[in-house]
Amino acid sequence: MSNNYNDMWRSLGVNLEAHDQLLQALPPTYHDVYLTQTNRPKSMEYFDFVVNEIHGLRIQELQEHKKNGGKVIGAFCVFVPEEIVRAAGGICIGLCSGIDIGAAEAEQVLPRSICPLIKSFMGFKLAKVCPYFESCDMVVGETTCDGKKKAFEILNDYVPVHVMETPQMKKSRDKQLWLEEVQDFAELAQKTTGTEITDVSLAQAIQEVNGKRQALRRLSNLRKNNPVPISGKDSLLIEQIAMYDDVARFTAKVNELCDELEQKISTGAGVFPGRTPRVIVTGTPMAIPNWKVPHIIETSGAVIVAEEMCTGLRYFENEVAEADGLDSMLENIAARYLGINCAVFTPNTGRLEQLENLVRDYHADGVIHCTLSFCDPYAVEANRVEKMMKQKEIPFLKIETGYDQEDAGQLKTRVEAFIEMLR
Ligand code: SF4
Ligand code: SF4
């Protein structure tokens, strides 16, 4: 990406020197992870372009929106209802937190031993390296895990943060609490943007976001084929871009890609030979540009056929049911989001059931559970997943890792041994 955007970044208060370091690190990594793949679908050009312009064109679009009086609202969790932000005329951006940047700054306010995702978002803000973050009028946090919940108190010193209380269980009183949180958020979104949410605007936003989720599901379903028409790395990239790209354009591009893949499938073509071991990855989300484990898996002889993660199926598996009237729509939004099987819930049996179904539906040979270091909810829940996998005799590998590359060699050895066993 060119530095023609320097004026825009400067006007946002981005630290240009630190930002340059980030931009220099991205292209070589992207080249090695993505552009060295063979048989890539032609339609991936759009997604390559989006990454190439990651801090350029999309940021320019956000600035245009703001110039016209629009607001940008950032989020770190798939529990934040994008439909509400859109219905209030705002743009919802998933803030990435997938790279080790600004760690020194973050460690001035956070303990050293904390989940890299939390350290990353704090580092991004304190080091002022993310033009998305700097474009946000408000950030929405949630009480999913303790580390995030407490970090939002600190983050609030630097950007207005609204925290939604996500319940820990899914009983009827939890459903009521969450519904009230969703209703409060709708009030706040209207206050922040100055635009009233109407029946029409909310119904439209629900349809648009459902359309995005349908396109992603269509793509996901195509991965059930053997040979697989698209790599897991490319699929993950698309799932990551879903968090911040323009909804209508992104949906159209994913559908275009699916058209191409359907064509490919009809000729029996795929990206890996038909006998390649098929793996499902489950665990903590992999925010852009965290491609470390998928890259190791797909350069060790296996293909990833599904991601049971928030950068994956948890983001698009359920839709908001359409309804008449604001109240019913908000109820349906609350119900849809509470259906997400995040490890912060107890019990979280829905995730186990889902995994078992996925192994069957995606014809997977094994499951790799990937937890970010210091992420207690997923690290502890891995025990339940492992137990179920043993009972069902599904080959299983458990990995715990951060954003640095120090353990890449060791991980590769373990993944290769697992894939060898699958064969
Ligand atoms: S894993 Fe849980 S906390 Fe993290 S993004 Fe998903 S729903 Fe939110
Ligand atoms: S990865 Fe785990 S510890 Fe980190 S923010 Fe998500 S739930 Fe919390």
TrEMBL record:
<keyword id="KW-0408">Iron</keyword>
<keyword id="KW-0411">Iron-sulfur</keyword>
<dbReference type="InterPro" id="IPR047678">
    <property type="entry name" value="YjiM-like"/>
</dbReference>
<dbReference type="Pfam" id="PF06050">
    <property type="entry name" value="HGD-D"/>
</dbReference>
<protein>
    <submittedName>
        <fullName>Benzoyl-CoA reductase/2-hydroxyglutaryl-CoA dehydratase subunit, BcrC/BadD/HgdB</fullName>
    </submittedName>
</protein>
<comment type="similarity">
    <text>Belongs to the FldB/FldC dehydratase alpha/beta subunit family.</text>
</comment>
<dbReference type="GO" id="GO:0016836">
    <property type="term" value="F:hydro-lyase activity"/>
</dbReference>
<keyword id="KW-0479">Metal-binding</keyword>
<dbReference type="GO" id="GO:0051536">
    <property type="term" value="F:iron-sulfur cluster binding"/>
</dbReference>
<dbReference type="InterPro" id="IPR010327">
    <property type="entry name" value="FldB/FldC_alpha/beta"/>
</dbReference>
